[in-house]
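EI: anyone free to look at a 484-residue chain?
SC: sure, send it
EI:
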Amino acid sequence: MEVDFNKKIANDPDFAEYHQVPEEPKSSRRFFYVVGFLVAAIIIFSATMLMSSDSRESWLGHIPFLGKLLAASNNELLGEKEDRINILLLGMGGENHDGGYLADTIMLASLEPSTKKVALISIPRDLTVPDSNGVWQKVNSINAYAEAKKEDGSQATVDALSSLLDIPIQYYVRVDFDGFISIIDELGGITVDVENTLDDYSYPIRGREDNPDYYSRYEHLHIDKGLQEMDGSLALKYARSRHGVGLEGSDFARSKRQKKILSAVRNELMSSSNILKPGMLTRIAGQVLEHTATNLKIWEGLRLWDLFKDTPQEQINSIGLDDGPGGLLVSSRGVDGAYILVPIGGNFEKIKTMVNDVFGQMPETKSAPKELEISSEPATIEIRNGTNISGLASEVSTRLEATNIKTIRTANSTKRDLKDAVIYDLTYGAKPQALEALKNNTNAVIGLELPEWLVADIKEGLKNNPKQARPDFILIVGTNNHQL
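SC: here you go
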């Protein structure tokens, strides 16, 4: 017998009202994923010239210095033998910014040589952690405090996070805003294929962060869809924007924008016209030296390139620590009243487990995307993210747009450790063809009964929006949805 889902909810006093959980929680800033790897883009340029099949046997290899460099690049990197190389990426404003040595962005890049997988774990700047001396402070301040004492702030941050997460962090790369802008300007700008028009009405204006007039702190950032020429300043804004309208406000969209910027910088660096401009390349190298700090040796950069030059973008997985539903952090206030983030339960054990098993959460590489099956029956679906992979619900929603199955909501689940996707049929068999198409398109299993945690999610959701439409299906996505 068909059960009326709305009536079932209405008759359950604990199952009363339904509000929409935000599509994705705010994540820590990921802009410097692009900037951090800008150094790698420079290395890519050098390595491609030095390590291509033609170059190895050419006159370049006979220059003593280059010959030694190429030979050294065959050595093993720290962590390579253990099949995990960890690099801490730090972004900061720099000397010309207020609080210029406070880390604006902190990201742990983990690389697995055997599979060519890359995991990028964003660490919020407001997370409180103990430093190497056991003093608790916001993680973004460790770099600044060390630099104020004329110590290596990057290494101090590495030491603190390595101890906290119980993993070795072998390398670091630290870059500032001005370096990013200057390098792109030296290239004469870049051409970016903007996928969607970007409207961000809350983009922070440099130098106005503390303006008493709150609304004077922000500008309306507007970038039209299509091919756009960007100087360094606009490229920085495009990469950093966090409050875009619609899909461009999601972490998934932001990550895609960052990859586009990096790809555009690399393409510009590698263009035949720029390869023949030694003066420009020398100036760019100068900008890298001036605005970048790293403990990577040149041969280690070349080795990284050699190991990961064939990694597709789909194998670069972004994971954010956050305080959203199912997240591993909660927001709080420090003794001075400042906003901080602390781990759930007061300890970092769950975070350690997630970080240590980060590659276990990633699906195996697939040779080609699966062809989608079109549903002959129109249907609606609510998609919930059952993983810690930021933006996965939106990613799956975008992929299903052409299947005649309309997404009416995306949200996070409180349960975030699912490997396999699950479909719950709220039509109770009334749309079998749509269900079969959805199952085939997502590799999902069909759940026979709503689990208690999902019922609790729905109860919580209905509190603020009892008139929200019931979907035909609820899809809880798992890590196996990341690269269908």
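EI: Residues 26-321 form a domain with the Aminopeptidase fold (CATH 3.40.630.190).
SC: 👍
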